[in-house]
Amino acid sequence: MEKKLVSFIVAGDPNPGATLRFMRALTKYSDIIELGIPFSDPMADGETIQRANIRALKGGMKVSKVFDIIREFRAYSNTPVVVMTYYNPVYNMGVENFVRKLKEAGGDGLIVVDLPVEEAEDYLSICRSYNIGTVFLAAPNTPEDRLREIDRACSLFLYLVSLYGTTGVRDDISNLALNFLKRAKGICKNPIYVGFGVWKREHARKLIEGGADGVVVGSAYVKIIERYGDSEETLKKLEEKSKELKEGILEGCKK
Q: Can you tell me which residues the record assigns to a coiled coil (predicted)?
């Protein structure tokens, strides 16, 4: 199985047109683009991504524009797009309406961060009917029985959170993450992708060597966008960072 790089950015940061250009820059080395819908209270995200959410919302980003961006992106690339959101925007639009619009735009999957798997039966049924892949998160303290339940609810991959707390850059991959990865690989049937705190080549290599099927990277890209804004330098830096991470994944495959 090919090991995957999932690259996350916040839709509309710093403006919708820039998001489309950023997606195109990332697609050269990324296997999946994860596109976050900006939300006023992104409780799973650290300060870097929280600030990106604020910039996007201040810039007038709305859920409907996310679908427009995906639709425009489809004119350039077939790279899968997974949308990350909280449940409130989905609920407000209506679950079936939201999923239908995502499918019509060309989206491939959906992560609803704060939707517990125990309350997701109707959501899962709707996603299956529109052939939208589902992804749920599991944390290091997730017990075995619940991990199995989360695994059954996933149809794209299981998103393993590498640490306690929120997203953000960390110095190294902890033994906690590697031990959890090993435990999850012995339980789950889906591919397991690891995120939170992953931002450099060495992290990607270690996780792939530890058995991960992919890595999810967000804050590293969002920091670049925060620093350089809507510019050619941002496009260059995003491509360079995704290349570095993909090289780390390939190095990890050689072990």
A: 221-248
